[in-house]
Amino acid sequence: MKAIVAVKRVVDYNVKVRVKADGSGVDAANAKMSMNPFDEIAVEEAVRLKEAGIVSEVIAVSIGAAPCQDTLRTALAVGADRAILVETGAEIQPLGAAKLLRALCERESPRIVLTGKQAIDDDANQTGQMLAALMGWPQATFASRLAIDGDVATVEREIDGGVETVEMRLPAVVTADLRLNQPRYATLPNIMRARKKPLETVTPEALGVDVSPRLEILKVSEPPRRAAGIRVADVAELAARLRDAEGVA
Amino acid sequence: MSCLILAEHDNSTLHPVTAHVVAAARRIGGEIHLLVAGDGCRRVAEQAATLDGVAGVWLADAARYADQTPESVAELVAARMAPHSHGLAAATAAGKSVMPRVAALLDVAQISDLVGVESGDTFVRPIYAGSALATVRSSDAKKIITVRATAFAAAGTNSAPAPIESLAVPDAPGKSRVVSRRLNRSARPELDAARVVVSGGRGLGSAENFHALLEPLADRLGAAIGASRAAVDAGFVSNDLQVGQTGKIVAPRLYIAAGLSGAIQHVAGMKDSQVIVAINKDPEAPIFQIADYGLVADLFDAIPALTAALGRTGDGGRNP
Ligand SMILES: Cc1cc2nc3c(=O)[nH]c(=O)nc-3n(C[C@H](O)[C@H](O)[C@H](O)COP(=O)(O)OP(=O)(O)OC[C@H]3O[C@@H](n4cnc5c(N)ncnc54)[C@H](O)[C@@H]3O)c2cc1C
């Protein structure tokens, strides 16, 4: 069975993003870009399913401008078999991304779609669930363990207050949480090999998908700053402050 | 305008986050209806009916909603949205699983993690781990929203409950099945509702240290326990105690951060706390930039000393 893994190119998690002075967005012009960390985990999981003989082909998909090819090459270097770039310069919101992925699912008929639970730029946490709904498939979000036996996926999910185990019939969507696995690094020989793997480019128009944004970003602003605090000299002063100033009994 | 809110509950008790969602809906305006979907959950509907500002409660009480699987609940919510302009749920693990499906079924966008309401179609939400706030205007006929509970003070209750109406629920096989749920029961307050949170990071060194040092302090303060991702990954505590961009969002009256550096992903989950205390041996640790009270110290000395110092006086005799 085929697996599709959706990967997003985002500002690296170590970069401290700054809001542009004119409030039009964040300044990401020269920022280091990387694969969304949750998507790295999703790719790793798909590759492990292939190594376990459960998945026959791993197809990495990214949506965005030409540099997303780098993100796809990274996925290929850790073990994806081929890649599809849905190339567009337009702003793509989760619903648009989910519709593009639906078009590719209809074309490729994967039995499982894996992706990160959220992208660390817009923090939306929507695309996997939206895709599942559009396809009429079951979903397991926030996965911390995935096992596939025949046509049934058993997934442990991180929920508020604990862990839930769900069972669902494939095809399905699984979104990766932090503790699903520890992604491997791409080795140099594999990075070289990845350059020869197929990378196809399509467009939203060719897929017949309307991706017009539904949310207009009116402004992006700095969150309120906390006033500077004080350093206390020792534990006695801290305890006194908590009691006297903060009413901690 | 009118709002439909998906209530969060475990079939017996309405979760407190729902009162925060009601508060957000009141900022939007219009009539507010609550939808309670579950199995044997009439008591939840009765609790929901007492929330201030609620005009009515829909009760979908059926075996197929026993586990509130996102596939079945999303279908129900989408079908009930017909007369409503806004559909809301808390930005919890459950809400985040259901609401994007609802949005997709209705072919509309979802607004995630609402923290501010400018008008019926214009909303504020955090992006980039809270490093920025985006004001967005929705052009969709219906708005589907998840609400960050800490951004809205809970709606109160009143003594004149709203009417409860039962919905006829068609029987249909579920797309997924919950096999088991392992909930970490604790005598402590829930992390996202606690007035005080004591959080530890990698600096605690081991699970044994984490518990031996932080639990007495948390006991003393009646606090919930939280943790950084590094502490969770190292197995000091369970995953549901992670605070941050991808964990719980908390805003207690007092947040004590011990042996954690204050990475932006952690800060995203606690920076709206009223008072932040940082205890770290590295004077350059970023957590000090947002702390109201910073103590540069080795936590292995400082935490037991703080527990003892707080225990000595003004404790109403709890610690003689
Ligand atoms: C996609 C993604 C999502 C993430 N989501 C989250 C999230 O939701 N929540 C989260 O917390 N992190 C998250 N992280 C991880 C985050 O980037 C940091 O790695 C993590 O928060 C660090 O945890 P820490 O502060 O405990 O460890 P460290 O950064 O290693 O800090 C340990 C601190 O302990 C101090 N210390 C050590 N020994 C002592 C001592 N004896 N006494 C006093 N102080 C001591 C040190 O000085 C240091 O400051 C995420 C990362 C990624 C990539």
Question: Could you characterize the architecture of this molecule?
Answer:
The complex is a heterodimer of chains A (249) and B (320). By secondary structure, chain A is α/β, with parallel strands linked by helices. Chain A has a single domain, classed as 3-Layer(aba) Sandwich (Rossmann fold), CATH 3.40.50.620. Helices cover 28% and strands 32% of the residues of chain A. Chain B has two domains: 2-166, HUPs (Rossmann fold); 191-311, 3-Layer(aba) Sandwich (Rossmann fold), CATH 3.40.50. Chain B is built from eight helices and 16 strands. In chain B, the strands form three sheets. In chain B, strands 5-9-4-1-2-3-10 form a seven-stranded parallel β-sheet, sandwiched between helices. At the A-B interface, helix 3, helix 4, strand 9, strand 10 and strand 11 of A face helix 3, helix 4, strand 5, strand 7 and strand 8 of B. Strand 14 of chain A pairs antiparallel with strand 8 of chain B, so a sheet runs across the interface. Flavin-adenine dinucleotide sits between chains B (201-203, 228-231, 242-247, 259-261, 263, 265-266, 269, 280-282, 285, 298-300) and A (13, 37, 120).
What's the quick description here?
The complex is a heterodimer of chains A (249) and B (320). Chain A has helices at residues 37-51, 68-77, 94-108, 127-135, 188-194, 204-207, 235-244, and strands at residues 2-6, 9-11, 18-19, 26-27, 33-35, 57-64, 82-87, 112-116, 139-149, 152-159, 162-169, 172-176, 199-202, 215-221, 230-231.
